[in-house]
Design brief:
By secondary structure, the chain is of the alpha/beta class. It is about 45% helix and about 15% strand. The protein folds into 2 domains: about 190 residues, Rossmann fold (3-Layer(aba) Sandwich); about 180 residues, Rossmann fold, CATH 3.40.50.2000. It has a 7-stranded parallel β-sheet with strand order 3-2-1-4-5-6-7. A 6-stranded parallel β-sheet has the order 10-9-8-11-12-13, sandwiched between helices. The longest helix has 20 residues. The radius of gyration is 21 Å and the shape is globular. The chain starts with a strand and ends with a helix.
Length: about 375
């Protein structure tokens, strides 16, 4: 069997999608010496990534969501004649005619409506929205199989598109062991100019991440406690980060909030470990990987009371109402008031719980999907 994977989004700088690809490819390389693989990569990782003998790298240095992707990608894939192609994101070229499976991480853009969810002009926004829905429908309806990270996403796809349950496979994501760092707290604090106590968030600043309410919660928290408390956010900088800065300035919360930009895992693990808690305020997610990593690194997690988190995290996090910033503040204060003994006990229980999530298991399940798709 010859499996082609569109890995242009490979790399931790590409957030959850990049981390998914890094771990999928690493684990498949470990467990599958029989099948042949073709990886489509951008220039950086085409040069840097080492692969086993049964793997081939192909330089495809054009970005996703582009017009050129729609035209050239089908030709490139066809040239390699794969048994199955794996698109790890919904951006399947609409004219692609080969056999493929697709990973759908969420359907957030189906729910996000209005100009406040974009930085584009109105005509471009609506044109992009039409294109998105056409590409997405092609991705899910034309695929042999669909992989999703949670039953929540599976149900949403069935509700939106009337798909058969048997077409969709849930493969829960895993937790990176390298998020546990031996770096020294003092060095990391000095490097990023932060001090305890602080709450932390890692991820992008898109509107559904609900960071505006965290800003409001931090202002209220600092009004109600005796010492200054920080909110530390690590995120690749983009236009939505710029919008968040404007929100912070308007709320006069600059002194409480640190926007660090992209932080490598060996530093992030230290920041997680020494935080009071990781804040996960999203209004919707497909899985919620950063909270898992925070637990693995050794801190507590405060999360939105939403269905997908209830499915994935169960009782391993403390929940708050994501539409009420005072509910967030209350959860923060409760965590700050927790005794060291109770805190350590909860962290140990939570770390034991997340052992059920494994990248190796995810890769084995994905390989099974490849095999089943080819045999259809």
């Amino acid at each position: 069997m010859k499996i082609l994977i569109d890995a242009r989004l490979y790399g931790l700088e590409n957030a959850g999608l990049g981390r998914y690809l890094v771990n999928l490819i690493d684990e498949l390389a470990n467990i599958d010496k029989k099948n042949r693989y073709v990886l489509l990569l951008r220039k950086k990782y085409f040069k840097e990534l080492s692969v086993p003998e049964n793997w081939e790298k192909v330089l495809v240095d054009f970005r996703h969501y582009s017009f050129i992707e729609q035209i050239r990608l089908p030709r490139i894939i066809s040239k390699h004649k794969p048994s199955i192609t794996h698109f790890p994101h919904f951006n399947v070229p609409v004219f692609f005619k080969g056999k493929y499976i697709v990973t759908i991480h969420d359907i957030l853009m189906h729910k996000q409506k209005g100009r406040n969810t974009t930085t584009l002009s109105a005509p471009l926004y609506y044109l992009k929205k039409i294109g998105y829905h056409r590409v997405f429908r092609k991705a899910v309806c034309g695929s042999e199989k669909i992989i999703v990270p949670s039953n929540f996403v599976k149900k949403e796809l069935i509700d939106y598109y009337g798909l058969e349950k048997s077409k969709i496979t849930v493969t829960y994501e895993g937790v990176d062991t390298n998020i546990v760092s031996k770096g020294k707290k003092e060095n990391i604090f000095k490097k990023y100019n932060i001090s305890s106590p602080y709450f932390i968030y890692a991820g992008n600043a898109y509107p559904h991440k609900n960071l505006k309410r965290v800003v409001e919660a931090m202002v209220l928290l600092n009004e109600e406690v005796d010492k200054k408390v920080l909110f530390v956010m690590t995120s690749a900088r983009n236009v939505f980060t710029k919008k968040l800065r404007e929100t912070i300035k308007k709320a006069k919360a600059d002194k409480y909030i640190k926007l660090l930009g992209f932080v490598p895992d060996h530093d992030l693990g230290v920041l997680f470990k020494h935080s009071t808690a990781f804040i996960f305020p999203s209004l919707s997610e497909g899985f919620g990987l950063p909270g898992m990593e925070a637990i693995r690194a050794g801190t507590l997690v405060l999360a939105s009371d939403i269905p997908v988190f209830k499915e994935v995290y169960k009782d391993s996090v403390s929940y708050f109402n994501p539409f009420d910033f005072s509910s967030m503040t209350k959860a923060m204060k409760n965590t700050m008031a927790m005794s060291i003994k109770e805190r350590e006990k909860r962290i140990a229980i939570n770390q034991n719980y997340i052992k059920r999530y494994s990248w190796a298991t995810m890769a084995k399940q994905t390989l099974k999907v490849y095999e089943n798709s080819v045999s259809v």
